[in-house]
TrEMBL record:
Residues 1-27 form the signal peptide. InterPro entries: AB_hydrolase_1, AB_hydrolase_fold. The lineage of its organism: Eukaryota, Fungi, Dikarya, Basidiomycota, Agaricomycotina. Residues 92-347 form the AB hydrolase-1 domain. Pfam families: Abhydrolase_6 (PF12697). Transmembrane segments: none annotated. This is AB hydrolase-1 domain-containing protein. Keywords: Signal. SUPFAM superfamilies: alpha/beta-Hydrolases. It comes from Mycena maculata.
Amino acid sequence: MFPFPLRTTVSALSVLLHLSSIYVASSQSCGCTSIVIPVHVDVLVPKDPADPFGGLKSNASSLRRLDDTYDVFGVFCQPNTTSPKNADVIQLLVHGFTYTNQYWSPPTEEFRNYSYTEFACDRGLSSLAIDWVGVGLSSRPANASDVQYATGAAVLSQLARYLKTASILPGIQPFKRIIGIGHSAGSIMLNFGAIVDGAQSPFDGFILTSLLNVDLSTLAPLLGATSARDDTPLRWGALDPDYITTSNRSIFYPTDPTSFSPRMVIFDNFTKDVGSVSTVLQGDITSVTAHYTGPVAKVVGSEDGFFCAAGRCVDVAALTAAERILWPEAESFEVVVAQGSGHDLNLDFFAKGPFNTFVGFVNQFTGL
Ligand SMILES: *[C@@H]1O[C@H](CO)[C@@H](O)[C@H](O)[C@H]1NC(C)=O
Ligand SMILES: *[C@@H]1O[C@H](CO)[C@@H](O)[C@H](O)[C@H]1NC(C)=O
Ligand SMILES: *[C@@H]1O[C@H](CO)[C@@H](O)[C@H](O)[C@H]1NC(C)=O
Ligand SMILES: *[C@@H]1O[C@H](CO)[C@@H](O)[C@H](O)[C@H]1NC(C)=O
Ligand SMILES: *[C@@H]1O[C@H](CO)[C@@H](O)[C@H](O)[C@H]1NC(C)=O
Ligand SMILES: *[C@@H]1O[C@H](CO)[C@@H](O)[C@H](O)[C@H]1NC(C)=O
């Protein structure tokens, strides 16, 4: 039995928070706005938040119904001048474990050139970078066991449907094509949605970064995750202990210390957020086949300490063949290994390479 979304709706109105020029790096040619979109989900999730397949392989008696409405925070960026073609396309950007929307645009002048949203905006592409439910400025359920991949994936699919049917802000037409771009656990979330939605997916293409089909249970210990309330009591002391975080961020960077700024790692540590235990324990869903019919690309860093260890990313043709098996009906499937990049493709000195790769795939998938 699959955890199909039973009924998922988004309220007609998104809430405009403020014009944000302070928190989001935006160039002369790009305007960014923070928004909150209420999303209603009604899904079946595993009773056991440690279920390795997130309910995808569970039977009805091991599932429970989750029916709730969450406020989803996001930063919407749009080029000031878009051609009619570009105006049809939006990228939905999904951060990874213990990050927020800021992964796509570090909110400080010093790291402005690490902003993918600005890079893409300068090339005519709009984006909406969201915070997962449970994370950042989105609603945080009191009980971390509500924050599972089934929940997050339902939110993303419903947001995508909303972007295709409603105006996100006054004067902005619904988008015709949506490309989901995920990082790490954000890629798992998009992958989960593609398994559930199949050919009905509202996404017109996926770019799944920093994620390969590797037994994640063996990799999870590398995170050294601890309860967020023990890690930072002043900030997270009141949280359910199943909200977790990680203090040692080195695994997210290449081992060569000259390939990233040590100041980025400090900044990363200060701006980190939380995830739920399910986020770490349910990752094996990526070994389940997705009958999605649109185009799919995976981008992984050659120095990714989780996925490219043990020479796994050296033979790209073999890697592509192995990964392709899980996307049998994808219109096209490619794997790109970004040379020099670590797990956090966006945050080291090689970031411009992956940025160009992402924009190239978006243009290819949408015919721009
Ligand atoms: C683009 O829009 C932003 C935000 O609305 C504004 O700050 C900027 O001056 C605009 N740039 C141009 C070239 O119109
Ligand atoms: C269904 O799940 C329950 C609880 O996990 C388990 O006890 C039972 O054996 C399962 N039944 C089948 C047919 O798999
Ligand atoms: C969280 O919800 C689950 C499922 O309803 C329940 O089993 C668990 O006891 C709850 N945990 C807390 C801390 O309330
Ligand atoms: C952080 O993790 C790395 C491996 O990713 C390890 O080499 C290093 O010793 C750790 N640092 C601390 C302070 O634990
Ligand atoms: C991370 O930041 C905390 C303060 O929030 C600090 O206590 C800790 O030493 C930092 N860790 C690293 C590895 O910089
Ligand atoms: C950003 O600029 C700095 C200084 O010019 C440079 O060292 C760094 O490599 C750049 N980062 C990216 C991602 O291009």
